[in-house]
Design a protein that fits this description.
Blueprint lengths: L2 H6 L1 H7 L11 E2 L5 E2 L11 H5 L8 E8 L2 E7 L7 E8 L5 E7 L4 E4 L7 E10 L2 E2 L6 E4 L1
Antiparallel strand pairs: 1-2, 3-4, 4-7, 5-6, 5-8, 8-9, 8-10
Length: 144
């Protein structure tokens, strides 16, 4: 390579001396001042699985637990559509929650004949769509 070519093209001069081409981007420095010289190519591709993944249903809300006769009547608001199931969970006194009823995806209330005096009964609701479950609703309680 001639000296004239090296003088006319600084990039060739750097390459000839073992330097880097100034037109290539500098490696990025992290917070510690070190550089990461690994290159990641941005292909612009979109992760189709993440885009098409269905979201779980929006959490329902229990808004009423009323004494009706010798039992309790529970009502809730569904905050989503296309639901396949509604689960009503119940616990008595200081017990654990368990599914008391599995209902259609459009159910918004039920007369709970399994709640009988004496006792404090607490309820939560959970919905399901496409195999995905919502978070559990708020808790609402009533004593018989």
């Amino acid at each position: 390579m001639s000296i004239r070519a090296l003088l006319l093209c600084p990039a060739l001069l750097l390459a000839a001396c073992g330097g880097e081409n100034p037109s290539s981007p500098a490696p990025a420095a992290d917070d510690t001042g070190t550089t990461d010289e690994t290159a990641v190519e941005d292909t612009g591709a979109v992760d189709e699985a993440a885009v098409d993944a269905p979201a779980p249903p929006i959490t329902p809300r229990v808004y009423s637990v009323a004494i009706m006769g010798s039992n309790l009547h529970v009502s809730w608001k569904l905050n989503d559509t296309g639901l396949s199931k509604v689960y009503l969970l119940r616990k008595k006194n200081d017990g654990e929650y368990a599914i008391a009823y599995t209902l259609s995806g459009k159910a918004t209330n039920i007369h709970d004949s399994g709640a009988y005096a004496p006792g404090k009964f607490c309820y939560r609701v959970q919905t399901e769509r496409s195999g995905l479950k919502s978070e559990l609703s708020n808790e609402m309680c009533r004593t018989l």
